[in-house]
Structure formats: C-alpha cells, structure tokens
C-alpha cells in the first residue's frame, strides 16, 4: 500500500516528547585501533535547527446530499444537503528555507484544512505560522513565521543526484521529537504511483514514518535534496521505501508561491505516453526511456517550438528523463514563461528545441476553493471579458451559491476585476458576505458568497 505520510492524530500529538534530536543508531566508539571513525554529528548539528515540527488544528467538513424523498416530505424549503463538522488535530514536519523572511516549506496534506498552524522550533520556541500558498497537485505548501535567530537549510541541485548517494532523513515521526535516520538514494524519477497528480519522486530507504511529512531529506553535506512526502507501508510502518519531492521542484514551486501566492503552472501543450519496449522497437530505438508525443495542441508552446506528433522527448535542459510522467512533472513545476531546452528523437535523429512554456489558463476546482470556500467545485478561466466559469460540479458549494457554467465574474462588491489574480487579491482580506458581479447571457446580476 502506497500512502502519504499521515499527519498524526490528537492521541499521538498528546504523546509528543522533547524536540531534542534522536539519532537512530547505537553509540559507536570514536576510534578503532587508533583510526578515527566518520560521524554525521557535525553535519547534523548545523542542519537540524532548520527542521521544525508543524502542529495543526481545524475542522473537517463533510457534506451529504439529502435524498429526494426527504425533500418530497418536507417541502421545497428542505435542505439540499446535510453538513457535518468534526474537529481534528495533526502533526507533521517542515523545513526553514529562508531565515530572513521566515519561509518554511512543508507538505500540503500536512496543513490542508487547518484553521491554526503552530511551528515548533529546534530551540523549543512555538510560533504561529501564516499560510502563504499551496499546490495540491505536487503536495507543497509555503508557510511564514515571524521569529529571530532562525537557521535556514541550504538547497542542493537535486538533478545531480545518483542512485547510491547517501541520504539522511530528518523529521518528527509519531510525535517523538526530531529524529534522524540514514540510508541511500534507492531510485530517481519515480512516477505512476498514484500518490500525487505530479510525480517525480526520489526514492530512499532511509527510515521515514508517519509524522515525517514535510521533513528534510539531505545529503552528507547537510544540503536539502528533497521533502519527504510518502511511504509504501503494507503494515502501516516503515519498510524501507520512502518518497521525497526533489529539491529543484520545490525551489521552482516555492518561488512561484512566494511571488504570486499560487503556482502558475507551465504548459507544453502535448499529450503522450511513456516510451515502452514495443514503441522503441517500432521506431528502431536503442532506448526505452523518454516521453512519446501523441498529439500537439494547436497554437501551443510545443507547436511554436516545432515539436511534432511522433517525436520522443528524452531530456529536459540536458538531463535525461525516464517517462512522460517525469516530463510532465518537471515542465508543470517550472512555471509559465520558463525557457526550456528539450532533447528529442525524430525519425531516428536527435534534435534539440528551445521552448517558452505557456500558462495553464484553467484553475482546478480545488484551487477555486482555495480562492473562496463557496467557489469550491467551479472551474475558473481568465478571458478577455473577465473570469469565466467553465464548469460547475453538481451539488458543490459553487452550485449552491448560484454559479452556472458560462457565467463571467466581472467584479466584487463595487470593485471591477479582470483576472484570477485580482479576484484572489480582493477576496483575501474580505470578511463576511461578498457580492460577486456576474455577467450571464448579456445580463448583469449579483450573487452573494457567505
């Protein structure tokens, strides 16, 4: 069973011990026959202050549609759905990446739905954290705290990783307090696991367990190589198969969240599949690594760069890729407008093309919910007229608010808005009810979000 590193329950939270590091190895002598023995202690003394615990509280809201038969008995004023609220607590990990700004990166699933986020620092201080932004598709969240004397971790170039490199995991498993485990990089470019929408994981056998979510995976220099995210856990505990989001992906995502409050996903404009042995044989190739291009969208970044259906993309910025999923993950996390060099094979010949990535114009339902809870279930797209509702899920909060497919949001209260960025900025500090100005079938109306 593949699972995200679960956020600890209230019972586990109550059992939390000290934040002093616990190194998972027996004590060893400093010398043997006069020879000094290498130790990770000096590196850990520099690195562990950058890893924090993240405690969250919130309320899970579950909604269930009321059967039609009940509405028949109770009349037209009967509620359309039943809402249940259940308080929750959880505990995970995080990594300080900018000491001056107080930026901390963690997993989205650690803080998802949280009303209050508290960060526990290595020196025992507890600080309230502000959520800057998240990306649910890659499971990354950026927090910010106000505190002095913070220690930030240095990031590595995770593209330089090799299978067999040593790896050290630092986190807060089972609420025990900061714990360190070691192992190696077991595999790179892991995808197709069904854990996230965008997968390009580092696999490691360093022991990772529940509560390690959002913790650091570092090299022997104490540099960040990944954010621990998920494990394979058939029995519920560590079996030596853990997954981390590469540091380079994290850097790209965090830079976008810090600047825009959200991820502006890069788009190539192609559909495809993994290159397998049958395709490789059919095209006379001696490699089975890469992404096969089935189709190129009209007027897309890929078409403008000259990419064609039947091309096999084998590298991104000079780094080989193993699968179409890895290509998709790397491109999507680079951000709109990024310039990328793709290596490909066409008719048996190797070529290199330069692409300026487009921007994903449509906002997912989950992202719409992040803009405002009552927009959950609506798909939003920037247009020349305003923000168009391209779809509304039946029974969703957006549908209950009265939004319909084809509506165009053109204002909030008395303020005109043109795009999603303006919509998010206007709603950020609004309290209570807000009125959306909607254009529907050439008519104007207002819908109130509460």
Automatic annotation (TrEMBL):
Tell me one Pfam family matched here.
PDZ_2
Q: Where is the signal peptide?
A: 1-26
Which amino acid positions bind substrate, per UniProt? Answer: 109, 139, 211-213, 229-233, 268-272
Q: Name one GO biological process term.
A: proteolysis
Output the superkingdom of the source species.
Bacteria
- The residues annotated as the active site are 109, 139, 213
The cross-references to PANTHER family, in alphabetical order and at most eight, read: SERINE PROTEASE FAMILY S1C HTRA-RELATED, SERINE PROTEASE HTRA2, MITOCHONDRIAL
According to UniProt, the name of this protein is Peptidase Do. Serine peptidase. MEROPS family S01B
Which UniProt keywords are given for this protein, alphabetically ordered? Hydrolase, Protease, Repeat, Serine protease, Signal
Q: Mind telling me which InterPro entries this protein's record contains?
A: PDZ, PDZ_sf, Pept_S1C_Do, Peptidase_S1_PA, Peptidase_S1C
GO molecular function term, any single one: serine-type endopeptidase activity
Organism this protein belongs to: Shewanella baltica (strain OS155 / ATCC BAA-1091)
Listed transmembrane segments: none
- Enumerate the spans annotated as PDZ domain: 252-348, 354-442
Query: What protein family does this chain belong to?
Result: Belongs to the peptidase S1C family.
The record, for SMART domains, names: PDZ
